[in-house]
Amino acid sequence: MSASLLTALQEKFPQARPRPSLDHAAVNVPADTILAVLQELRDAHGYDFLVDLTAIDWAEGATPRFTVVYHLRSTTHHGYVRVAADCPNAAEPAMPSACGLWAGANWHERETYDMFGIAFTGHPDLRRILMWDGYPYFPLRKEFPLAGIETPLPDAEIGAETGAAAIPAPMAGGPFVAAPGEINLTEAEPRAKDESWNEARAKPTP
Amino acid sequence: MVTPNTELAYNGKIEGEVVVSQLDAVINWIRTNSMWPMPMGLACCAIELMGSASSRFDIARFGAEVMRFSPRQSDCMIVAGTVTYKMASAVRRIYDQMAEPKWVIAMGACASSGGMYRSYATLQGVDRILPVDVYVSGCPPRPEALLDALIKLQGKVRRERSATQLLRS
Question: What is this structure's pTM?
Answer without folding.
Answer: 0.81
